[in-house]
Structures
1.
Amino acid sequence: MSELDRLFMDRALELAARGVGSTAPNPAVGCVIVRDGRVLGEGYHHRAGEAHAEANALAAAGDARGATAYVTLEPCNHVGRTPACAQSLIGAGVARVVIGAADPNPKTDGGGIRALRDAGIRVDVLADARAVQLIEPFAFAVRHDRPFVALKMAMSLDGKASATQGTTTAITGEAWRLFVRDLRIAYDAVMVGAGTIRVDDSQLTVRPPSHRLRPYTRVVVCETDAVPASSNVFRGVADYARTIVLAPAGARERFGELDAVANVTFVGAASDAQLDLRAAMRALRDAGVQSVLCEGGPTLGARLLAGGLVDRVYWGVAPRFFTAPRAVPVLAGANLATLRESVRFDRVEMIGEDALLTGRVHV
Amino acid sequence: MSELDRLFMDRALELAARGVGSTAPNPAVGCVIVRDGRVLGEGYHHRAGEAHAEANALAAAGDARGATAYVTLEPCNHVGRTPACAQSLIGAGVARVVIGAADPNPKTDGGGIRALRDAGIRVDVLADARAVQLIEPFAFAVRHDRPFVALKMAMSLDGKASATQGTTTAITGEAWRLFVRDLRIAYDAVMVGAGTIRVDDSQLTVRPPSHRLRPYTRVVVCETDAVPASSNVFRGVADYARTIVLAPAGARERFGELDAVANVTFVGAASDAQLDLRAAMRALRDAGVQSVLCEGGPTLGARLLAGGLVDRVYWGVAPRFFTAPRAVPVLAGANLATLRESVRFDRVEMIGEDALLTGRVHV
């Protein structure tokens, strides 16, 4: 990758970021059309059903003959609700296409790249780490029957979620709060366990609101018992989809009260008094959720990990100590000592006064 | 600071690093003499009693008239076992002195800088963060009656030191092991609690051995009971000082066996059955230890924190999970929830596959 290629791919990634949170079930994509070092046109995918990034950039460029197109994701070569982008690029007469990440969809199987090359266009696939991470949830969801699940937890340096049971301790700082806000925007849904609703009674909204176009989904995982129908998470908010409650089919009678305020999705057999978490994640996928950000609590986090259902962790470590007889550990209620999964950190840095450790979970 | 100043201060810091671990009770110092952008001479302080960095650099330079001296620490202006460096620089006719960090010794009180300026030499004090951190333990020890104490712990992402009680779990990777080796070299003493000796039976040595010149000190903190005299930490090793055992004066009869293999230092009154940790740290300072690296275990770490006796933490976070019924928390046995201390992270980064979080502890 030349310096100039890096510069224009950076710009395409910046453009793609504007669509993050609004494009599902499509991934966010950005595109820049360049000739002789000069930008002719820029574009990004705004939302599903609307023009793709390449179409927007080509329209802005006007005449793109002999130009280079920088696009964060391999151009599609199928006609859906919009024309095939590979064909549009060929038709526009571009000389070269630089691709950030190949299309992970097995149905595509390099079709966009092949079509461009067959038309005599030079194609460079960068496999850029940021371009790959941009489509991480999308790449996962097209290959699996459940959503991409990220687990976000915050803890003290000594591994405690809070100093005392049953209370919320403000543990991380303001910069971390804004980081989590951006995460909530990037994921299709925000999910917590029933215990967290009972203790925190959080609304799970994005504040201040973002530019995000489509409704947010909030998910409450009830492993056995329901939560109060008066919980804040059920309060209707403009731009928010109805909250989804995942509940065991065998406990149906305990969830009657929630029908009026939430989408209660019963999972498993009528004999299941406990929630089958894997089946619950599949149910979310069926509801159109490609990516979930789980924000705890300690029991749900541990059970998701124990079930091999976590694909990325975002760990916030606050620069303080909470060890005490009634302190709440960051994970609890499952045995993870024999877990084969471990994390490969890909980003370890300070977020304000706190530390962020994030990485993919690998078996 | 100009680009050139930064370059030569970087070089002086590199030179200083060669003395780390060998210069106590003096700090490590490096010096570069430069004229017209050309290095005339370099030097560093090798060990206490021998020539200072400035003297070595001036000797290497020969004629230093009109030159700039880059020195990581304010030059001394007192005649000790060696001549005063400020006077040597004045005598050599240097035109400018660039200082990385001011001398933290209240007895010096800027005397080196004043002497240089009074002689008409231009002096720039950079307060460079790395130069300040290089002398952190020294700076602390000259102002307090106890050593600078760093607490180094390793834990899983869920805050566990090991997966089961009474065993050692290999938790962090090879790069972290080498990082800890370098830490052991940089501190005057390596310290652990009795429980860690009983479980790990570590020798607490530096492997592979370093260039370090003076003997290493190993410290075992026995809060109530002694450890076996056959423990590896008492094995005589060339270049290692006799191991210091800190024990409560009231438990003297339990430590008879250790007299033959260690320097048993009894702390407190004859009625003290439990160790007074603050008094124990003072005793270490009296034994010439300016800086201590405590490597656990969980109880000693927590008790040092609870006592306000930790000045820096080095936290290693391994990318795995150990939550389980018998898992050992990274800190235990003290109540830290009401602690006023918190950490100010100054370095958060990956060390191989693990994450390092380090920072000063502030009240």
2.
Amino acid sequence: MTIPRSASVEIIAVGSELLTPHRQDTNSLFLTARLNDLGYAVRFKTVVGDETAGLALRLGEALEQVALVILIGGLGPTEDDKTRSAVARALGRRLVFRPDILKTIEERFRNRQVRMTSPNRRQAYIVEGAAVLPNANGTAPGQWVRAGSKTVVLLPGPPHELKAMFDKSVAPRLERRRAGFIARRALMTTGLGESALESLISGLYPKAGGGLDLTILASPGQVELHVVSHSRVSRKLAEKKADGLAARLRSRLSEHIYSDRGESLEESLARLLRDRKMTVAVAESCTGGFLGHRLTAVPGSSAYFLGGFIVYSDALKTGLLGVPQELIQSAGAVSSEVAEAMAAGTLSRTGSDFALAVTGIAGPGGGSPEKPVGLVWIALAWRGGVDVRKSLFWGRRELVKFQSAQKAMDMLRRHLLQPEAAGNRDVT
Amino acid sequence: MTIPRSASVEIIAVGSELLTPHRQDTNSLFLTARLNDLGYAVRFKTVVGDETAGLALRLGEALEQVALVILIGGLGPTEDDKTRSAVARALGRRLVFRPDILKTIEERFRNRQVRMTSPNRRQAYIVEGAAVLPNANGTAPGQWVRAGSKTVVLLPGPPHELKAMFDKSVAPRLERRRAGFIARRALMTTGLGESALESLISGLYPKAGGGLDLTILASPGQVELHVVSHSRVSRKLAEKKADGLAARLRSRLSEHIYSDRGESLEESLARLLRDRKMTVAVAESCTGGFLGHRLTAVPGSSAYFLGGFIVYSDALKTGLLGVPQELIQSAGAVSSEVAEAMAAGTLSRTGSDFALAVTGIAGPGGGSPEKPVGLVWIALAWRGGVDVRKSLFWGRRELVKFQSAQKAMDMLRRHLLQPEAAGNRDVT
């Protein structure tokens, strides 16, 4: 998609800790989403340590290429915080002491009954000519600096400070000079591999230059389709284009799409269960609790999730769920029969409307030629029926657990979408 | 820490998808760890889209500042893959077709019985003068390009290709000209807040200039102390310095440190349980399965983890674990009494040596002035005793779940470290 240079952005995250193996900038993901919504595109992202020279240099280079540079972090009260002086140096301006800012900071400390230490004075300096962006959640104010046709924005590093400041003070300023309108749709699918999905939607890729883009992001157990459209005229036009392509994709992919607004699978499933006032319980072997964890990641999940069993050992499969010991010996713990017995045991012991049972080999050990690592049996049981599926998942332990939980939730989701399914009796 | 310019690095990740809100470069974290071990320090990290002009420009700027530039990605077979041509442009060199590379690629396709499509030919071009770095896991070879005193390295984007290539072909080349030796120690703590920890270790911060650094990374439920030392002389000297500081920190923090080699809490706990041949089971309310998920994240966890109960609803607390209904009504589901009863019920029903029970309010809803969001009761029970603790955790739903699991595992860990604790009877 071609975005004019007047709408191009570089995001510079400042902080030596972001140059270690242990920390990563994530603020730029939030900023990118918001900037895209406002019609801006990020052309470069950079991380620079706490060093005035490198930062001033990089800012100078960025201003040669883009219209807007956003600096994140380095506004704290200590000597390590170099952003203010680096911006002043790059723009050839002075730093100006602002007593009114110091007063605000002092008041903040007083209200919290904390004694201010003298270094906080540093935070009262701004780049000559900058507009001050108030910080509702911290002491360091942000700054909005015009330099010819370019703009430099200084934002604090803590995410809750940055987000509030961007939405309150930066977005409205950018809105006034927006270069266009961008609309996004995120279609979430599971149960189809990337190549199978691509062949289903062949011919739907938009032509270049029409202000419409389709990007496919595939990961094990999930394929996302991201539609982005751009209009210089209006938000409505951008949304119409995006909705048009989203509708064509939906007509090809139908029930494979679990959300067209970027929700997680557990959120989509939550909606279906809530609407039907139905409940689910789980019995987990190889997922070890991960399926329950996913289901309870949604606030208010107690409305449809009762709980269940983690039966990692075979003794507990028998002791807690009544899976016959002989069945485990004859069919094996990872088998269709045991998955089904686990689901049936869960249904009767919890009184839930649905039970999901997972048994498999997460690896790296425990595999055999007949039952390799990645083999997982999943059973969905309800009063009057059961559905058992075999999967062979690829990847490391945590990926096998993820794909297993994904598949289990998707089995229940697809079941609930069938008009004749249990759970729809009272609805249609 | 001062690292000479000859050991300074910029990492440039290439790919327009890395400039969206949905994807993030993570290869640079792996590369940073490896580079640090080799005595190199990352000075800048940059993300550039699939555009030759921007990439060539950024590479030129990087070469002005650092000794080594590593480019990640953009080596695929399609028109989107611009890294080769951008490097050629920045260095003023030609791209050279290498029939031997094409042959290797063709063989790879033949072996996998896949027909090669013509675009793969692109991958057989190298920058004039470059050394070819073989790709054991993919078609795109890497490249090692000398340019005066500077070096440019091109690596493929898929992590398993990049990692294998770095370790096999890049690390040995860097080793030969290493600028120094770096040693790292990661001391992992839980159960102490950042400021409490800082006051315990006051006076231990190393002075600047001695080639020894201490960084504290605090997040809810975990504080990590990273020791990094640098020596121009030998690895041994670097390690001695790092071990010296680590020992001084350990003498102050003792049992608050659960690992001095960067392990996760579940890995440390796994070792303690394995050594003692003891087992654990869980009863989870507000964590919803997350504690079991953490415990089973360690390969081979079936040696010490039996399983347990997810009792999200009060009915299941009574039905599965025998928590008296009257107790839930009088004391409340989130109470010391119910946590203790959950742990006792788990112990008797699973036959484990230890039981961990968690009941709390993960939020955002469900809080009250007496029992606010973040209130969590955790019980550890064993044959002959029980320990119940109250916590008030701060943060969003997933953070409350994380801190609860962290605290539960830490209670068991500290218990196992007591000389007189259950579990140590046969050991001492």
